[in-house]
Specification:
The complex is a heterodimer. By secondary structure, chain A is of the alpha/beta class. Chain A has 13 helices and 15 strands. In chain B, helix 2 links the parallel strand 4 and strand 5. Chain B has six helices and six strands. The chains are: A alpha/beta, B alpha/beta. Strand 9 of chain A pairs antiparallel with strand 2 of chain B.
Chain lengths: ~375, ~180
């Protein structure tokens, strides 16, 4: 008997969020994310948290923004149609630097699409769904254990960088059950509190750093929050220098911390002639084929992306410089990931394996692609 | 045992095929295997045939879905007809004695059991899925019986534990007869 439990992906998300200190959930249940709302409704009250079922996804994200401003670690969970509705307020959270976690369990799109089947068509929306040059972090687990671990990481990064974090995983990862250990050695990170008195407090003054210390509303610090370009007081400004300084800082707090934020797993890259590159459920197909190919003596590697945005251009460029390998990119979309990779490694030969019928990419499909490259 | 099991439990919606898959996955996990359980969702699972897939191995599992099913339970004719193509040539099928499996390849081992006649005798049709687990585990020997019993007790409603354990025991006895036949 191990201490592993059979746990579903969406259940692992709930357990990870509770472990990370989440105490507020507002949402509108939608397939294939519904189990997250169901379990949050069951479990949050037991730890003194609050669950709210909202009238729609616009209200859901607005409500968790409010909860986070008041100091709670808050999340919502949705799928493509709801994620589209959330974009305006996701931008507000990025601009006002309110930490939160939005879980998008992806299904086929566009529109209401295919509710019960997997897709990875939200890859670009997770980065660029909001208008404006906004910061965002997007994490992508490919197993139940990783859902648990990366949900904790998502809250930690949200609190550390004062930014919305999107946890993006497809229906297959959300619904499969695996044996996992619901324990983590990751330390839980809480947002920093102001060190000055309320009378001296400037919410968006970051000193030598890049990250503001936002006091919870109700804690005695009175300040203004606005989606308009603002100065250190939080009030709107039309001063060109202040506007630009804010925009650069918002993005620099992510860009200058890429090393800390970008997570990935590499398999057998050193002598690789062909490298599978994937995230989410296609990693599972690629991993099986990569192992079998190695067992046959073929020089095949695998890179699993756990952080999708910021995109790890430098990692891929370094790997290509060292190996000159060809890439095979399996994804459940028409090629959103492959398009981004071609920016990282414009000289690399990239074979795309795309599937858009809701089913998983099979190992047999990838074996065939590998034969075409080797 | 080094064998990798790719198990499908299928039936019509409401027969408990999916719960049976989850229980068997939990028993296999307790037995020290790596396991992955998945199931059919949505319109596919409402009415008609539904299925639960369980991958069981001592090696690490990557791809989560069944590719060549070597152990299948079909509780209805419709589910057998729908999923028979997924059975590997050397696969094993467990089905009810009244189901026609004559269209299957000769290389597939077919066990026909009095599943529904037995649950009728127990006057509890809802325990057919647990009875099936008893037969399945006895003919395959995948997990220790005590692990299966513990997994059942942990998942079924408390008030139904004794009738479910009775169904498990009936299943084990049917399984022993099939193995010795």
């Amino acid at each position: 008997m191990g201490n592993k439990r059979l746990v579903q992906g969406n259940e692992a998300c709930v357990e990870g969020a509770l472990k990370a200190g989440a105490r507020f959930f507002a949402g509108y249940p939608i397939t294939p994310s519904t189990e997250i709302a169901e379990l949050m409704a069951e479990k949050l009250p037991l730890v003194g948290g609050v669950f709210m079922q909202m009238e729609d996804e616009i209200a859901s994200i607005a409500t968790i923004i409010g909860a986070s401003i008041a100091g709670a670690k808050a999340l919502t969970a949705t799928s493509g149609p709801g994620f589209s509705l959330m974009q305006e307020n996701l931008g507000f959270a990025a601009m006002t630097e309110v930490p939160l976690v939005v879980v998008n369990v992806t299904r086929g799109g566009p529109s209401t699409g295919t509710p019960t089947k997997a897709s990875q068509g939200d890859f670009m929306q997770a980065r660029w769904g909001c208008h404006g040059d906004h910061p965002v972090i997007v994490l992508a687990p490919s197993s139940v254990q990783e859902v648990y671990d990366l949900t904790i990481t998502a809250f930690n990064m949200a609190e550390k960088y004062m930014v919305p974090v999107v946890l993006l995983y497809d229906e297959v990862v959300g619904h499969l059950r695996e044996g996992v250990k619901l324990a983590s050695s990751q330390a839980v990170i809480d947002r920093e509190m102001p060190t000055v008195s309320p009378s001296e407090y400037l919410p968006y003054a970051t000193g030598d750093g890049l990250i503001p210390k936002l006091a919870p509303f109700g804690s005695g610090y009175r300040y203004h929050m606005s989606g308009l370009s603002h100065d250190e007081t939080g009030f709107p400004t039309s001063n060109p220098a202040t506007i630009e300084k804010l925009l650069i800082r918002l993005n620099d707090k992510i860009e200058k911390n890429r090393k800390d934020i970008i997570k990935y797993k590499a398999y057998d890259l050193d002598d690789a002639q062909v490298i599978f590159l994937a995230y989410g459920s296609p990693v599972r197909s690629a991993l099986q084929v990569q192992k079998e190919a190695r067992a046959r003596g073929e020089k095949v590697g695998l890179i699993q992306l756990k952080t999708l945005w910021p995109f790890p251009h430098e990692l891929l460029a370094d790997v290509f410089a060292a190996t000159k390998a060809d890439f095979i990119i399996p994804e459940l979309s028409l090629g959103q990931l492959a398009d981004e990779v071609s920016k990282s490694v414009p000289q690399a030969k990239i074979t795309r394996v795309n599937r858009n019928d809701g089913a998983l990419i099979t190992p047999a499909q990838l074996e065939q692609a590998l034969k075409g490259v080797l | 045992m080094n064998k990798n099991w790719e198990l499908i439990i299928s039936g019509s919606g409401g027969q408990g095929a999916i719960l049976a898959g989850i229980i068997f996955a939990e028993a296999a996990l307790a037995n020290g295997y790596n396991v992955i359980q998945t199931q059919s969702y949505g319109p596919e699972a409402r009415g008609g045939a539904s299925r639960s897939e369980v991958m069981i191995s001592h090696e690490e599992l990557a791809y989560p879905k069944v590719q060549a099913c070597n152990l299948m339970v079909a509780m209805t004719q419709e589910s057998l007809d729908k999923y028979a193509d997924m059975l590997a040539d050397d696969g094993v099928l467990l089905t009810d004695q009244d189901i026609d499996a004559s269209a299957l390849k000769k290389s597939i081992r077919v066990y026909k059991a009095p599943i529904f006649a037995t649950v009728e005798k127990l006057q509890k049709p809802m325990v057919a899925n647990i009875l099936v687990l008893g037969i399945l585990n006895t003919i395959s020997g995948i997990v220790k019986p005590e692990n299966l019993s513990a997994a059942i007790q942990a998942r079924v409603p408390a008030a139904t534990i004794s009738i479910n354990l009775k169904a498990l025991e009936e299943g084990i006895q049917i399984g022993k007869k099939l193995v010795n036949a």
